[in-house]
Amino acid sequence: MDDAQNVNLPTIAMLGAGSMGRAILSGLLAPHVHAAGIRVTNRSEARAAELSGTPGVTTYATEKKPDANRLAVDGAQLVIVAVKPAMVRDLLAEIVDSLAPGTIVVSVAAGVTTATMESLLPDTISVVRAMPNTPAVVGKAVTGISAGSHTEEDDLALVRTLFETVGEVVEVPESQLDALSTISGSGPAYVFLLIEALTQAAVEKGFTPEQAATLVNGTFLGASELLVSSDEDPAELRRRVTSPNGTTERAIAVLADADLPALFTRATDAALARARELAAG
Ligand SMILES: NC(=O)C1=CN([C@@H]2O[C@H](COP(=O)(O)OP(=O)(O)OC[C@H]3O[C@@H](n4cnc5c(N)ncnc54)[C@H](O)[C@@H]3O)[C@@H](O)[C@H]2O)C=CC1
Ligand SMILES: O=C(O)[C@@H]1CCC=N1
Predict the structure, then answer these.
(1) From the first residue on, what is the mean pLDDT of each consecutive set of 10 residues in the chain (281 residues)?
(2) Identical fold between 7-179 and 187-277
(3) What ipTM goes with this model?
(4) What is the C-alpha to C-alpha distance for residues 262 and 221, in angstroms, rounded to an integer?
């Protein structure tokens, strides 16, 4: 990122500094990113204290300062809502009177629709939904963004710039955002689950946990880099590993028995159903 172009952002309030809030914050703190100000709130004082030494960041803990969220959004042009979906409605009700007209409120909460959020805010507020993922911590997120009904092109462009500080951005209609979440929002968890399973198989074959981690992590990283740098699709790259009548062919036959595509369809359908439950509140 040394040769990255400078990015200028307005004053940002990040409400919630859990896994996702801090992952996004890591992009905002990159040397080429210049936010006019960054305010971060969190419920616990301990988490806020972890961030309090960070240059350019003002932190507030709601358990110490009950008006922390209102203080943080006062004068901020971009408000990022990164609390649990069940808390979004209460949080918006808490801050609504402190938001200046023209503020962009971008929520990363799974399921909660722009219509729900807009119903709690004046029409002068632009509501955007975003669905990032945790590789944001290493600048490799994939983030879906969707405009609300009061969102101008410039608002969405600013949200795109914000999330480009942590990786790639894909704009989709909001009707597809929950589906996107089941793929890329949750996706890192599926990948880690596969890594855990292959690591366990390696340890069962007598490798030390350290050796197993080297073999498995290196294989996932190498395969991912091969895929993104290659013109071939993953099926062709898989065929190139699978020598006719060789060892891989036997392993793939066992995995094919498990019908992974059907399993991933069921898994992502279950995630989608949960997003709809979260939307209902
Ligand atoms: N973890 C992930 O991979 C992803 C999470 N998301 C969304 O991000 C949101 C946050 O998820 P996580 O970071 O995983 O949860 P988390 O539980 O790690 O973080 C939530 C944070 O919000 C803070 N908080 C709670 N009430 C607050 C309040 N009233 N004011 C300020 N801060 C408050 C909590 O102290 C906590 O640190 C969720 O809505 C989730 O759907 C979206 C994409 C990916
Ligand atoms: O599990 C969740 O609800 C959030 C949304 C996508 C990833 N984590």
Answers:
(1) 80 96 93 95 87 88 93 97 97 98 98 97 98 96 98 97 97 98 98 98 98 98 98 97 98 96 98 94 82
(2) no
(3) 0.98
(4) 25
Q: Which pLDDT does position 257 carry in this prediction?
A: 96
Domain-wise residue ranges, the chain: 7-179, 187-277
Ligand 2 and 121: CB distance under 6 A: no
Give the ligand whose atoms come closest to the C-alpha of residue 137.
Answer: 1
**For the CA of 23, the nearest atom of ligand 1:** 13
Tell me how crowded residue 210 is: count the other CB atoms within 10 A of its CB: 8
Q: Which of 84, 90, 170, 276 should be mutated for ligand 1, with most atoms under 8 A from CB?
A: 84
Phi, psi of 246 (to 5 degrees): -95, -160
CA atoms within 13 A on the CB side of 168: 5
Fold classification of 7-179 (topology level): Rossmann fold (3.40.50)
**Pocket flag, ligand 2, residue 185 (CB < 6 Å):** yes
* Superfamily of chain region 187-277: ProC C-terminal domain-like (1.10.3730.10)
Does the beta carbon of 91 sit less than 6 angstroms from any atom of ligand 1? yes
Q: Taking the model in full, what pTM does it have?
A: 0.96
